[in-house]
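hiii so um. not sure if this is the right channel but i have a protein structure encoded as tokens and i wanna go backwards to a sequence. like what aa goes where. can anyone help
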């Protein structure tokens, strides 16, 4: 187990760049799903590997071995290395759990404060805040709300407001905050996965951009609304919950250029190159999952042997 268990920690170094290259050639919606699924799969494999290291090290302790009915030591592997690896894995798991709890508490407090400030919506899912600083964002929850300030309403023309609202509604209807939550959680499991967070955020914003363009029936209007909203918001930044998604977020010039480019994503990509990266990504995911399963199976066999059971 001590050898196979390391693969889930190494394979993200190859899988993450491959996933990013594939996402660049896809439409926003499948790109968001691909990147999020990749981060979740790699995070689960690396977390499983950490847990297996902790279990293997814990079984070296006499009290734990007694609970597991081990009548002889586990076979295979260096005892010192197993113990050190288990200690490091336990520290990483505890650190990740602590950061996760703190993040959830902070974001929950921010969302509660935002809902308190916006009060009751007066027009469906729309809440207007009396604030001269231009801002607009999708506030997740039950139900979700579109929050816009009077400053943002004054900065946009009526048709641009409709595009902005359609953008934020796409965030709510697509539950994009859950995609970002998965990305944040995955980043706690493996540091390499943090580099996919901006790519996922960009794909989600592009997804909402395309929805806004479809809603107003004019891609140039959607592009103009996003550009003007971003310029207005940056002129007088307004604090918003970290879990909220906003049209003014991310690389706005790149998003506007993508809206004005009417060619489909497939026409801008190199099919053979993308297929090559897809093969690499699938191989990494399969190897990572297979290594985690193999490590778990090997540990299970070692425990059975230490319990005096037959290897068969």
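sure thing!! here u go:
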């Amino acid at each position: 187990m001590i050898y196979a268990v390391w693969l889930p920690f190494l394979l993200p170094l190859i899988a993450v760049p491959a996933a990013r290259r594939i996402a660049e050639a896809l439409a926003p919606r499948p790109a968001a799903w691909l990147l999020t699924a990749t981060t979740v799969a790699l995070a689960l494999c690396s977390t499983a590997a950490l847990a297996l290291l902790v279990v293997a090290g814990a079984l070296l302790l006499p009290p734990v071995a007694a609970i597991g009915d081990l009548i002889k030591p586990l076979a295979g592997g260096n005892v010192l290395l197993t113990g050190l690896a288990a200690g490091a894995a336990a520290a990483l798991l505890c650190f990740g759990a602590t950061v996760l709890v703190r993040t959830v508490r902070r974001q929950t407090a921010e969302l509660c404060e935002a809902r308190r400030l916006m009060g009751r919506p007066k027009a469906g899912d729309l809440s207007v805040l009396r604030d001269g600083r231009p801002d607009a964002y999708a506030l997740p929850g039950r139900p979700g709300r579109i929050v816009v300030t009077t400053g943002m309403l004054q900065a946009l023309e009526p048709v641009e407001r409709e595009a902005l609202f359609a953008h934020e509604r796409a965030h709510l209807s697509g539950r994009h905050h859950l995609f970002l939550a998965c990305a944040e959680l995955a980043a706690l499991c493996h540091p390499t996965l943090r580099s996919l967070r901006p790519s996922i955020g960009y794909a989600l914003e592009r997804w909402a951009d395309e929805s806004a363009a479809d809603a107003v029936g004019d891609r140039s209007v959607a592009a103009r609304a996003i550009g003007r909203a971003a310029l207005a918001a940056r002129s007088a930044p307004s604090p918003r919950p970290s879990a909220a998604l906003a049209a003014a977020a991310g690389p706005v010039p790149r998003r506007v250029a993508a809206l004005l480019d009417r060619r489909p994503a497939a026409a801008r990509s190199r099919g053979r190159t993308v297929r090559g990266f897809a093969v690499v990504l699938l191989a990494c995911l399969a190897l990572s999952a297979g290594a985690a399963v193999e490590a778990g199976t090997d540990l299970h066999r070692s425990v059975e042997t230490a319990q005096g059971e037959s290897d068969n």
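oh and The mean pLDDT is 84.
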